[in-house]
Amino acid sequence: MTTPLAFDLKPSAQPLSDQDRAAVLAAPGFGRHFTDNMVTIRWSEGRGWHDARLQPYAPLQMDPANMTLHYAQSIFEGLKAYRQPDGGVATFRPEENARRFQRSARRLAMPELPEETFVEAIDLLIRQDEAWVPNEPEQSLYIRPFMFATEVGLGVRPANEYLFMVIASPAGAYFPGGVKPVSVWLSEEYVRAAPGGTGEAKCAGNYAASLVAQAEAAQHGCDQVVWLDAVERRWIEEMGGMNLYFVEGAGDDARILTPELTGTLLPGITRLSLLQIAEDLGYATGETRLTKDDWREGNADGSISEVFACGTAAVITPVGSVKSTSASWTVGDGGPGPVTTRLRETLLAVQSGSAPDPHGWLHRVI
Ligand SMILES: *Cc1c(COP(=O)(O)O)cnc(C)c1O
């Protein structure tokens, strides 16, 4: 390895006033307000990573022929910083985000940022903007690392210049009025990812391609879309931007199942963590394949008792009802099930530091 990248620290001289920031933190919503600063690191062919800065949050200037605008070499990550009981701040498994970011970069023919630089960039921004980390339960500071091509030109090939950035946005409780199950639409027309495609990469293009299906779900009165596999259109893959879990059976004998990573699913860090947490709680777990008919029949005969989605932004979201062109059904009794609730509370307790962290998942920043 070469010498570690040195960051030039020039934070904002005019951060938002305590009073204005408090007004934002009173009702932060999601992704609407940003902290005072951001991190930027450049990469170019020949020079590699350079020009690492912490600087005031500000708009970017962009050439109309910026290659990202045309060919979408654009990847991102999402993780959260949580206030801890001693007043400090921790992130959750950021090295997993760093590694996934490297895998996404590889798939989109982009340069890989070293894991320690990724984590350090996030830590620097959190330390600088610590006042933006909420103190309220279930609130957090959402961290958005991302990278895109900055080379100017219309030739189709991997760009030879990129910009990595980290921005941060305070996030309110996802369910301020209590956990509310979502309704889902099984998308039989549109697919999210095909074998050999970019389904495993956290890239902007996957989201662009998903929006029309999300709109179709809304037209059918559903909150979210559930993706089926591209080939047979029957294997359950994931929900919107979250992974799915199925609870088979009930009580201590419940089995916690999630679709296996076939290359077309996004390998969620929440998904990975819940497999471990479920095991720690004594449940049987499994990565498996399940069709839409398995789901409908298992729901009808009671063998599938609960279904939930999981991801960093919304943690765990129960699925309350399902609709498709051919059938619709209520999942269990339509409310958040006991296993779903237990897993959600256990994960939140680890993240907020109110429960032990036996696997060393918390990364202390402050
Ligand atoms: C980010 C993401 C997830 C969830 O990943 P986490 O690491 O748990 O936040 C699931 N599906 C898609 C499509 C995603 O983009």
Automatic annotation (TrEMBL):
Enzyme superclass (EC): transferase
Transmembrane segments: none
Cofactor: pyridoxal 5'-phosphate
Domain of life where this protein originates: Bacteria
Name this polypeptide is given: Branched-chain-amino-acid aminotransferase
Family assignment from sequence similarity: Belongs to the class-IV pyridoxal-phosphate-dependent aminotransferase family.
Modified residues (N6-(pyridoxal phosphate)lysine): 202
Organism listed in the record: Streptomyces lonarensis
Pathway: Amino-acid biosynthesis; L-leucine biosynthesis; L-leucine from 3-methyl-2-oxobutanoate: step 4/4; Amino-acid biosynthesis; L-valine biosynthesis; L-valine from pyruvate: step 4/4; Amino-acid biosynthesis; L-isoleucine biosynthesis; L-isoleucine from 2-oxobutanoate: step 4/4
